[in-house]
Amino acid sequence: MTETAADTPAPPTVDLLVVGGGINGAGIARDAAGRGFSVMLVEQDDLARHTSSASTKLIHGGLRYLEYYEFKLVRKALAERERLIGAAPHIMWPMRFVMPHDAHLRPTWMIRAGLFLYDNLAKRRRLQGSRGIDLRRHPAGTALKAGFRRGFEYSDGWVDDARLVVLNAVDARERGATILTRTRCESVRREAGHWLATLTGPDGSREVRARGLVNAAGPWAADFVRQRSPLRDKHKVRLVKGSHIIVPKLFDHDYAYIFQAPDRRIVFALPYEGDYTLVGTTDVEHQGAPGPVEISAAEVDYLCGMANRYFGKAIAAPDVVWSYAGLRPLLEDEADDPSSVTRDYVFDLDDDGAPALSIYGGKLTTYRVLSEEAVHRIGAKLGPPRPAWTAGVPLPGGDLPDGDFARFLAEVDARWPWLPERLRHRLARAYGTRMARILGDATRLDQLGTEVLPGLYAAEIDFLIREEWVQTAKDLLWRRSKLGLHLGPEASETLAQWMANRTP
Fold first, then answer.
1. What is the Cα gyration radius of the chain?
2. Buried residues in 162-185 as b, exposed as e (16+ CB within 10 A)
3. Per-residue pLDDT tens over the stretch 450-488
4. String of b and e for 243-266 (b: at least 16 CB within 10 Å)?
5. Alpha-carbon separation of residue 463 from 33, 42, 64, 400, 460 (angstroms)
6. CA 312 to CA 309: how far, in whole Å?
């Protein structure tokens, strides 16, 4: 019997279709779902596959943006810094930064003035203020060359960027959103007061209707407008590649460094994964279509040279154990220097029919307030106002007693003493209070199933597949965790084989 048009089921309808599973898309999906909108998010790859997992891992106000008079952006980012650390203290925490002073680059008065603004543009509750330091007597001075005697110390925050994206997506789903990874939005068109979107995923093609559309495709945002929608192309996005290197640790303390370069750029050196130092980032103009990118030999040399300018222990390309790169989608502002292009964001709302909101620019630290504003704008086109709610609400696993990770860790140590200390602490950091969902009623290691890789048990893998959209070994080893850095090059193949033979 031939199926007729009347027999064909109508596409499902949602209030909001969000295209893009980076930090902005996941944040918007969470915010909108929490306001009672029905939401579907589609991501063509894994969550946080591109820009959002390629950051410098900082929740920061952007000290260097003050030189470009980005006072509004810095104030907004500084205020968000406090909120975010409180919302997920297991994956975000305060970090003290040391800036060795090089009189040839920036005078003392300029740095002091910048730090004064940094301390006072927004209220601080969790983070200490800045101060001048004598590097000859400071713990951070021991790793530096002897010529650096004076410096400055200030506060910012650390974040596990990829997990921040995933936790927003988890919260969105638990509030009713549908999250589809490995699903590409091929095209959208307006039809009968809705958007009709064609999606392609692992199970083939499907259609969905949406009352509103959010284009949060990051580096692909402009291409989505031009190639896959009837929307007008109003903004030009400038793609800037930022690259980082990971080397064996160059210092034995918890301070991070911010270095001034002769080209007036800023490079960070951060403690990373216990045994390593992260050095980055670069700012290189990217020509051509958006997509996966890799660090160049010139960038490796630049970052090694910056480290060698300040550290007593020299590094070179053979010392790099891992590197990563990503494209920052920055709003074109005609600046000659990629480093000076604004990190702020703009919205383009097209409400000539079913509304569509495109997002250009943005930075990790301001994703929550960006999401809040985005849902305000497009939500107003979908019905009566619905109140914002995300400020001060913990992300999944972030509901620690008084937001105190040290106290939580002590409770973890007391509750699961049979877990190896390194594993116990890794699970606490990654999952916060939700580590109990992995461990269940287990009272010994063999109850966690097969130890597929050192310190990685079947119970955790099953949880990540079931709860966090893990489909490949790389999803788990490089985005849900950084175990790939510790377990060697064979780990990916071993895990992939086990996952392929896994019985759900």
1. 23
2. bbbbbbbbbbbbebebbbbbbbbb
3. 999 999 999 999 999 999 999 999 999 999 999 999 998
4. bbbbbebbbeeebbbbbbeeeebb
5. 23, 21, 40, 21, 5
6. 8
Question: Would the pLDDT of 336 be above 70?
Answer: no
* Angle (CA) 417 504 434, round 5°: 35
**Nearest Cα to 216, choosing from 91, 373, 374?**
374
Residue reference for tokens 């064909």: 8
According to DSSP, the residues that pair with 159 across neighbouring strands are 92
Q: What helix, strand, coil percent values describe the chain, rounded to 5?
A: 35, 25, 40
Domains, the chain, ordered by start: 13-50+163-236+342-379 (3.50.50.60), 401-501 (1.10.8.870)
Share of the chain above pLDDT 70, in %: 96
Express each pLDDT in 91-110 by its tens digit.
999 999 999 998 777 788 88
Helix pair angle (23-34, 367-379), 10° resolution: 50
Reported in sequence order, the residue ranges of 192-230 that DSSP labels E, i.e. its strands, are 194-201, 204-215
What would the pLDDT profile of 43-80 be if each residue is shown by its tens digit?
999 999 999 999 999 998 888 777 767 888 888 888 89
CB neighbourhood size of 323 (10 A)? 19
Of 274, 208, 278, the closest CA to residue 242 belongs to 278
pLDDT at 1 (0 to 100): 41
How far apart, in whole angstroms, are the C-alpha atoms of residue 474 and residue 482? 10
How large is the average pLDDT for residues 425-440?
Answer: 98
**Residue 211 to residue 16: CA distance in whole angstroms:** 6
Q: What is the mean pLDDT of residues 213-242?
A: 91
Q: At what angle do helices 367-379 and 71-87 cross, to 10 degrees?
A: 100
Q: Is the dihedral of CA 117, 91, 51, 27 positive or negative?
A: negative
